[in-house]
Amino acid sequence: MSVDISDFDLAEAGAVLAAESARFASFGWMRGTSGNLSVVLARDPLRLAVTASGHDKGELTARDVVLVDGAGAAVAGGRPSAEAELHARVAALTGAGAVVHVHTVASVAVGHRSPEGIVFRDVEMLKGIGQPAHDVEVTLPVIANSQDMTVLGDRLEAAREPRMPAVVVAGHGLYVWGQSPRQARHHTEVVEWLLELELARR
Amino acid sequence: MSVDISDFDLAEAGAVLAAESARFASFGWMRGTSGNLSVVLARDPLRLAVTASGHDKGELTARDVVLVDGAGAAVAGGRPSAEAELHARVAALTGAGAVVHVHTVASVAVGHRSPEGIVFRDVEMLKGIGQPAHDVEVTLPVIANSQDMTVLGDRLEAAREPRMPAVVVAGHGLYVWGQSPRQARHHTEVVEWLLELELARR
Amino acid sequence: MSVDISDFDLAEAGAVLAAESARFASFGWMRGTSGNLSVVLARDPLRLAVTASGHDKGELTARDVVLVDGAGAAVAGGRPSAEAELHARVAALTGAGAVVHVHTVASVAVGHRSPEGIVFRDVEMLKGIGQPAHDVEVTLPVIANSQDMTVLGDRLEAAREPRMPAVVVAGHGLYVWGQSPRQARHHTEVVEWLLELELARR
Amino acid sequence: MSVDISDFDLAEAGAVLAAESARFASFGWMRGTSGNLSVVLARDPLRLAVTASGHDKGELTARDVVLVDGAGAAVAGGRPSAEAELHARVAALTGAGAVVHVHTVASVAVGHRSPEGIVFRDVEMLKGIGQPAHDVEVTLPVIANSQDMTVLGDRLEAAREPRMPAVVVAGHGLYVWGQSPRQARHHTEVVEWLLELELARR
């Protein structure tokens, strides 16, 4: 049971993650050095490329990436964020091929008002996460924050809704996932749009 | 009664729609893969170029376009959005040469507060849709959403105001039209500006 | 008493106005084809270069400019906006070398709440229009809109405050002026910042 | 006790400050010609490169920089802003290697509501300024504005919180510092994000 991920594969993943990060940073969703992105490179055992910690997310290069295992520990590359463990857990739990973690003002503001979860219904934009635009309530779970990634992962696992490829971490930000970096991007944009609508509707 | 639209004409239309889409996407009005744009290429019978479904609207190329007939069915190119039918109906109904469909937060937020329609009056910006800046009420209709494009088209036909080249679809977004892609763009910008003013005026 | 303004001078002014327009358009202050900019080219008699009417303000070229006289009538170039008359009047009245007219949401929203004028005090940003940051009230006048540029000019002349190089036209937008296009830009940014602060302070 | 800072060193610092300024200007945080940035070039005696006064902060070149001493007086280059004195004082007081002063709408709006200081707690983003994300209150001080930089510096010195590398000047804007221009940038982004969250939470 071995995986053979070449430096080339890792750099290719790094280039994709750098481009996606720059995009989210341009929206103001990764201020400071916040947030991190990942993509699954192997399943058995699990291997993810995760953006390196401590860098400006608008200035990543293809090399600012770390290969981690299913526990979020570095296999190759530099220092991963502690949050790499949660990326790996989301990938294992949901089968997602890519995970986005961003710090958006709307997610924290709306999560603060709705600590029991944010309910969406009758919005066409829900189709962007594969849900019907009519008559069905879709809940975006809100979980309490923690610095212990196992605790946070347990909360995410307990709270997550199959209809919703995202969770708000209270006082923190958004985790969103999809089959690929592009689908994870689109899911992130859709969820953030729904949250911005909540803010505008007040 | 035949129309002869060359691949070249279609690609040219695709290039224009890709540029217009990238512009609207940069404003955050086409998050995820939402929205679609069209331009009329022939009138008798009706033929429109419509942006292809499922793509990121900030990353379209000249080839990401579908030729559809007056019922929104594909004549050439890939898979059109189901909403192509509504584009065709708007073009037939209004004589417009171009139709813009975007998902803006302001249109959904204001439409939610004013389900009977949004009344504008005494705003200079109304001149941007050919209306007087003084003394005349201009209503932006709000229609209920539907996944059945015939139902949605019937609602649009019943509700539309001759003074207003746009309709809000509740919980969904905006349809706007004009003689050309550029005029449709300007009408879209004007209507969205009016909606953002409503939000700011609260 | 003749003025000799070469095509070259006019094109140079057009290039400056196109760049300034593109900047304001990127901020969303010239949606549709709204707004216009001018720069004084001669004083005796008065000659201004004014942006041409009906164009997208993010896509002007150096040739999209009209030379007008002190009444706003075209001397050379295409069709000026009717508002060119007001630009000329502002230049004559204030001695300004450049005039900016933009349609910002904040100016219309705040003008609607404060039809008697908007009072600023104790804000450092006032120094950006040459006013003290402490203890002095500075009023941004709000005048009623009109399509008659002579009426609008009379209102502007009656209402304007020597301390404030700007006027809000209710339901319409902002007129701002300065010695040069760059200073008019900075005055515009300062006044708009003050208006956005008013919106945020609510 | 002499310092030998070459023209080359100063130009290099100027290039960094120009790039950082352009970044902040693109966010709308340096409207008009407001704000200024500095970087420490020597400690004994103190020498800082400060952006030149009166320029558009989105258009600085590597030469638009002034070398100042610990009192903010020019050693080389053009005219420094009066605020250079405060930059020097912050650098001396905190040991910071770089200081950012920007005029953000959120800092003035939130400072107006919370003149006794703005308290943050239980927000992950606090980690971006080296603080814990849980259980600890971190206060962003708000000090009264003054045109006398000695008075303003005394207020900053009296009010500053060791946990917070930033101060709001009421009716004015933000001062933020860090070890390097990049860290000062990240601290600025984090503090502004926290202020925008306060606005959104209302």
Automatic annotation (TrEMBL), chains A, B, C, D:
UniProt cofactor(s): Zn(2+)
Pathway membership: Amino-acid biosynthesis; L-methionine biosynthesis via salvage pathway; L-methionine from S-methyl-5-thio-alpha-D-ribose 1-phosphate: step 2/6
Catalytic activity of the protein: 5-(methylsulfanyl)-D-ribulose 1-phosphate = 5-methylsulfanyl-2,3-dioxopentyl phosphate + H2O
Cellular component, GO, one term: cytoplasm
UniProt binding sites for Zn(2+): 101, 103
SUPFAM superfamilies, per the entry: AraD/HMP-PK domain-like
InterPro entries in alphabetical order: Aldolase_II/adducin_N, Aldolase_II/adducin_N_sf, MethylthioRu-1-P_deHdtase_MtnB
This enzyme's EC code(s): 4.2.1.109
Keyword rRNA processing: no
Keywords: Amino-acid biosynthesis, Lyase, Metal-binding, Methionine biosynthesis, Zinc
Record text on cofactor binding: Binds 1 zinc ion per subunit.
Biological process annotations from GO: L-methionine salvage from methylthioadenosine
Location of the Class II aldolase/adducin N-terminal domain: 15-199
GO MF: methylthioribulose 1-phosphate dehydratase activity; zinc ion binding
Keyword Metal-binding found: yes
PANTHER family: METHYLTHIORIBULOSE-1-PHOSPHATE DEHYDRATASE (PTHR10640:SF7)
Role summary: Catalyzes the dehydration of methylthioribulose-1-phosphate (MTRu-1-P) into 2,3-diketo-5-methylthiopentyl-1-phosphate (DK-MTP-1-P).
The family this protein is said to belong to: Belongs to the aldolase class II family. MtnB subfamily.
Official protein name in the record: Methylthioribulose-1-phosphate dehydratase
Name of encoding gene: mtnB
